[in-house]
C-alpha cells in the first residue's frame, strides 16, 4: 500500500473544500487561525512517517490533549481514577453541565470538559500547577520524541480570560466534592494542557503507543500496558467526539479524539496513528474536513476496526 500517494490524493481531492466548517471563536485566540489550512500525517507501527498538506504547521490541539492527560493520570492513580469519572458516552456537548447535577458531580467520561477537569485535579495531587503542567509537557514531548513542542501561552491566557463555562463546571463539581484543589489551580492546568501546540507529524507520532499495544515501537519501550492501551482506545471510540461519537464511528470506524482547534488524532490498532487538522468545525465542534479526510483514509486503507 502506498500511503504517501493516498495522503497526497486526499489533500488534492479536498483542495477545493478548504475552509469548510466554522472556526471556534469562543476562545478569541483560536478565532484568528487561518481556516484554509489542512494537514494530515500517518505514523505506522513499523516506524514510517507519511505526511501531506500543512502537516508541519503547529496548531492548538485542545481536547486531543485529554488523551495524554488521561494516560498520565492513569499511570499515577491507576484504576482509582474511575471513582471520580465515568466511562459512558454523554450524548451531550463537550462543555455540557446538565448531567452533572443528576450524577452528583461525577462526569460521564474523561473526554468531556467536566471529566478532563477532574483528571487535572487528580494530576495536581502533591504538585503545584506549574509542576503538573511541566510534567504533562515532558510526557507529551517524550511520546512525540520531540523536545521542541511547547504550550501556546497566548491561547492559554485567552481561554483563562473567557472560559466562563469551564469555571462553572469546575465550581459545580467542587460543590459535590469532586474537586479537591482550588478551582483556579485546576483550570490553570486544564487551560495550559489544552493550549499545547503540535503539528500533525508530532501528534501522529505521540499517539503511536495506542496503535502498538501500549508500547513505543520506535523507541522500543513500554508506555502503558496492552490492556490500558485497549481501554483508552475504547474510550476514544465511544466518547472521543462527544455527541458526534456515534457518527464518527459510523463514518470512520476508528478510535479518535477531536479538539476545537480542528485537529483529530485517530488510531488504527496494529497499523498506525493518524493526525489530521483543518480548523473549520462541524455543528458538534469536530473538524469538518478532518472527519471527511479520515473517512477517505479509513475506506481506502481498510483500517476501520469494523472491517475493510
Ligand atoms: N479548551 C477547550 C474548552 O474547554 C477544549 C474543548 C474542545 O477541544 N472540545 O472549551
UniProtKB/TrEMBL annotation:
InterPro entries: Beta-lactam/transpept-like, Glutaminase. It catalyses: L-glutamine + H2O = L-glutamate + NH4(+). It comes from the Bacteria. Homotetramer. This is Glutaminase. It comes from Ciceribacter thiooxidans. It is an enzyme of class 3 (hydrolase). Substrate binds at residues 63, 113, 159, 166, 190, 242, 260.
Amino acid at each position: 500500500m502506498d500511503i504517501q500517494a493516498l495522503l497526497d490524493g486526499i489533500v488534492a481531492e479536498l483542495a477545493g473544500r478548504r475552509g469548510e466548517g466554522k472556526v471556534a471563536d469562543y476562545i478569541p485566540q483560536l478565532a484568528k487561525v487561518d481556516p484554509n489550512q489542512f494537514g494530515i500525517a500517518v505514523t505506522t507501527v513499523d516506524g514510517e512517517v507519511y505526511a501531506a498538506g500543512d502537516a508541519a504547521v503547529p496548531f492548538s490541539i485542545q481536547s486531543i490533549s485529554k488523551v495524554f492527560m488521561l494516560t498520565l493520570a492513569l499511570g499515577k492513580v491507576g484504576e482509582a481514577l474511575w471513582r471520580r469519572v465515568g466511562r459512558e458516552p454523554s450524548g451531550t456537548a463537550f462543555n455540557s453541565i446538565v448531567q452533572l447535577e443528576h450524577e452528583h458531580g461525577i462526569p460521564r467520561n474523561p473526554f468531556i470538559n467536566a471529566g478532563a477537569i477532574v483528571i487535572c485535579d487528580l494530576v495536581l495531587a502533591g504538585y503545584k500547577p506549574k509542576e503538573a503542567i511541566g510534567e504533562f509537557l515532558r510526557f507529551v514531548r517524550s511520546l512525540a520524541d520531540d523536545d521542541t513542542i511547547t504550550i501556546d501561552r497566548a491561547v492559554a491566557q485567552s481561554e483563562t480570560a473567557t472560559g466562563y463555562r469551564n469555571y462553572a463546571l469546575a465550581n459545580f463539581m467542587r460543590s459535590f466534592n469532586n474537586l479537591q484543589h482550588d478551582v483556579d489551580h485546576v483550570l490553570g492546568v486544564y487551560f495550559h494542557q489544552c493550549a499545547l501546540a503540535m503539528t500533525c507529524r508530532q501528534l501522529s507520532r505521540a499517539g503511536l503507543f495506542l496503535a502498538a499495544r501500549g508500547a513505543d515501537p520506535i523507541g522500543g519501550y513500554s508506555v502503558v500496558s496492552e490492556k490500558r492501551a485497549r481501554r483508552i482506545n475504547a474510550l476514544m471510540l465511544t466518547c472521543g467526539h462527544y455527541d458526534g461519537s456515534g457518527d464518527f464511528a459510523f463514518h470512520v470506524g476508528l478510535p479518535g479524539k477531536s479538539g476545537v482547534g480542528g485537529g483529530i488524532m485517530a488510531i488504527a490498532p496494529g497499523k498506525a496513528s493518524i493526525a489530521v487538522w483543518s480548523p473549520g468545525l462541524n455543528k458538534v465542534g469536530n473538524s469538518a474536513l478532518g472527519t471527511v479526510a479520515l473517512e477517505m483514509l479509513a475506506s481506502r486503507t481498510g483500517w476501520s476496526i469494523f472491517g475493510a
